[in-house]
Amino acid sequence: MDMDIREIARRAKVSTATVSRAINRIPTVDPQLAKRVWKVVDELGYYPNTQARALVSGKSRIFGLVVSEITNPFFPEIVQTFENLAVQHNYEILLTSTIHDPKRMESSVRRMIERRVDGVAILTFGMEDSLIEHLRFRKVPLVFVDVGPDVPGVSNIRVNYQNGIRQAVQHLAALRHTRIAFVTGPLHLKSALARRDAFKTAMEEIGLPVAPEQIVVGDHTMEGGMRALDLISVRDCPTAVLCSNDMTAIGLMREAYDQGINIPHDLSVVGFDDIRLSEFMIPPLTTVQMSQTELAQIAFKALMNEVDGESPAQGKSEYELNTHLVLRRSTALAPGHDGRLKPLMVSGAGRGLSSPYRARRRKGMKPLA
Amino acid sequence: MDMDIREIARRAKVSTATVSRAINRIPTVDPQLAKRVWKVVDELGYYPNTQARALVSGKSRIFGLVVSEITNPFFPEIVQTFENLAVQHNYEILLTSTIHDPKRMESSVRRMIERRVDGVAILTFGMEDSLIEHLRFRKVPLVFVDVGPDVPGVSNIRVNYQNGIRQAVQHLAALRHTRIAFVTGPLHLKSALARRDAFKTAMEEIGLPVAPEQIVVGDHTMEGGMRALDLISVRDCPTAVLCSNDMTAIGLMREAYDQGINIPHDLSVVGFDDIRLSEFMIPPLTTVQMSQTELAQIAFKALMNEVDGESPAQGKSEYELNTHLVLRRSTALAPGHDGRLKPLMVSGAGRGLSSPYRARRRKGMKPLA
DNA sequence: CTAAGTTGAGCAAACGTATTCTCGGCATGC
DNA sequence: GCATGCCGAGAATACGTTTGCTCAACTTAG
Q: E strands within chain A?
């Protein structure tokens, strides 16, 4: 019924040691015998018991992967490429999501430790330090994005937010926008702060002052994006808005639709992350790409380096991930400028323009109920 | 360094057997001793080794979860609720994605077997029968959606496609649509066929004939949806289209935007699945809900039933999942009728209407390049 | 032809836990 | 006061592998 290495040994008339060595392709075993073993293995459909293997070898061949929520479209892409790499290297992945909930974070690391993972990639933004300590204490290789401590055994993927955000700001400036709003993420997240600061810096670089009321705080959700539109409206009445992530931008565009605000002609919007969906938004969302695929690849490679690395003096454990603007069609010349020049490389964005919206909006009128 | 049940036993001055019993809360152990054990456990931050546990108990406390692709927005929601249930019941989940690739399917079941999962939920639509046999052979409890064989040890979740699709068709008919197209999924998928057939049935029920050219085949992707728009345009020039899934609908709407076709006024579109995003589309997508949350809950419960079930004569292993229409704003009265009546409960859908599109479209003109 | 070296297979000891079985101690009933 | 039960703790075994060690057989050099 349940196959056994001993059963194989019996049928192939060799010892279990030989079976084990044959299966693991250890070259010292006689090819003749190896073939005999493999024959029996195939016939019986035998698969080694991973738990037993792990127990004796001390390696579980499992990598932990901690994300914020799987339902956040930023993550599935990461999970997918991480899984692809895992199967290639005969690893399994233990996927865990902290729903921004301390309880869940705790259970998350407990699960990692119980299953004796060989390493964990913490791709969630924001995690209790004390929990991290539990993993560090057990010498589990770790990889973080941005927030990892600078100690051996933990790698860090530094994201260059500035590049992409600078490009976004300059793109908007080139389109004659001067009143540019920014919708942040949750302010307790390092990554959200970094994006906001990058925005400020980029604005200052080109001599555009940024007043406090241009910055409204969101929460990286679509609902937050919807609320954010009202917040920026009542204030400065900006002609462009940069969002801390694509979800925010999507929610904001959706709310704009409800209020009859035409994007991009009444309002240009730029997202951040470049989730796959953003290309399919209406209009397609101009956004700053932070490649999820690349992020996952780097994270996996970092883990592999730590685990293979015989010498404790491994190579560098700092990695960098760049960001850059990808132009689509959610930005246009600032209102009032559209008669003069054609929008830059935003072909097609001009269609669907409906001047009444712009008129209504610019007079500060309430949208239709 | 690495904690051990023996280390705990030593420090608590008891045997390993007692430690084991204390940890597993077996009532025969003296409360006094139990407390002593727990004290040491907490102090040392000891976590039992799951592999060793699994080895001796024969239960891995892992459920396999097979999906098509994690990046398909239909699945993350499922994974999330499946995971929630898993942590509640102290299970781990082994997530696997067949990228519609036979190789991946094979590796998928191999991984399941190697890790000795206690059960697997096959939520992908379409899977090699021979592979299933491998799992059946090892008496692994299985749960399928729609396509499972009717044998003990495998549960089945029957989806009632007819209900929701009938509602969708009747909704369109009520809006005066008579030429209704349908974009199918990949035709080798049982679930895609079921949806298509449900559409035909629903049409016939209300006396609307469905000509072959009203049905175009898609592939359940956004790109497929984009292509589908052209296919339906050159043919019957329908006023409404029902899509086999939301991704298709989203792609189609996106292409409509490019071509200057206004949705819903030139063309009504209805999706299927009700992925979370559909609510945030522009316009918000009217679609047939097939609750991902509920699906995951049923799947998990089915697995739990099989694994708990002491008696081989478990309860019923057939489950049903209903579907129903959720109205949003991607449908409107058929063109030519909009002057007379107000659209039913599609408030706001009238705004953004741009008559030139409709005019252009109805004359069969090419869209702008 | 013998001694030393090489090769490759089997024996047995781990790995960390659950669990059966044994057995001592205590209470209970006569 | 003694035999009988019962209760709870410990000793030992099993789970399915990997791997260090032993040792037989064979090869090669002298």
A: 62-67, 92-97, 119-122, 142-145, 154-159, 180-184, 215-217, 240-243, 268-273, 286-289, 318-321, 324-326
